[in-house]
Specification:
single chain, alpha/beta, Rossmann fold, 2 domains, 6 helices, about 25% strand, binds glycinamide ribonucleotide
Length: about 200
């Protein structure tokens, strides 16, 4: 059984999709949900589901990313995860942190990478007039949103779409994609999932 830690910053809807899937014959089990925001709604949701939670408020560390990460690392290392899933985790991680979990840290990003790394992905897809949008799960490497792809799900952009309507359609696809990828990945299969 693979031990899975999930890092979140907000509501944690992707985290919930992962937790709900990690039952029965799933090769992974959640051992920790951690956040950089003690008020992240997802923490209470995870605790309600019986998962250990931890919060390290990044605001207490100013611009000292290394000190923040050292503090965040403590509960993560104590949980001894085999796999770390970033699920709406909105802090950029330093290469040192990434290196510790190289080859076993995943991220979900709301665009069809390599298109639109970084922020405001839906606004950028709409501004470009794209006919399709979607989401990607990838292995995390030191370069932002650029590691090897583990899966993508595509959705149409429809006439009249706003940033919010497109984000909602993509988020629903994220909830299908991330569990499918983690299931496969935790079983030792890194071939990409295409939805
Ligand atoms: C999701 O759309 C996720 O792809 C995005 O934040 C949202 C979090 O939702 N992540 C990023 O933009 C990472 N840079 P959730 O907290 O409800 O899972």
């Amino acid at each position: 059984m693979k031990r899975v830690a999930i890092l979140i910053s907000g509501g944690g809807s992707n985290m919930l999709a992962l937790l709900r899937d990690m039952v029965g014959d799933h090769p992974g089990r959640a051992v920790l949900v951690a956040s950089n925001d003690p008020a992240a709604a997802g923490l209470a949701r995870a605790a309600d589901m019986g998962v250990a939670v931890a919060a390290v408020d990044h605001r207490g560390f100013g611009k000292d990313r290394a000190a923040f990460e050292a503090a965040l690392l403590q509960p993560i290392l104590a949980a001894e995860p085999d796999i770390v899933c970033l699920a709406g985790f909105m802090r950029v991680l330093t290469p040192d942190f990434v290196r510790r979990f190289e080859g076993r840290m995943l991220n979900i990003h709301p665009s069809l990478l390599p298109k639109y790394p970084g922020l405001h992905t839906h606004a950028r897809a709409l501004a470009a007039g794209d006919a399709e949008a979607g989401c990607s799960v990838h292995e995390v490497t030191a370069e932002l949103d650029a590691g090897p792809l583990l899966g993508q799900a595509r959705v149409p952009v429809v006439p009249g779409d706003t940033e919010d309507s497109l984000a909602a359609r993509v988020l629903a696809a994220e909830h299908r994609l991330y569990p499918a990828v983690l299931r496969r990945y935790a079983a030792g299969d890194r071939s990409p999932v295409w939805l």
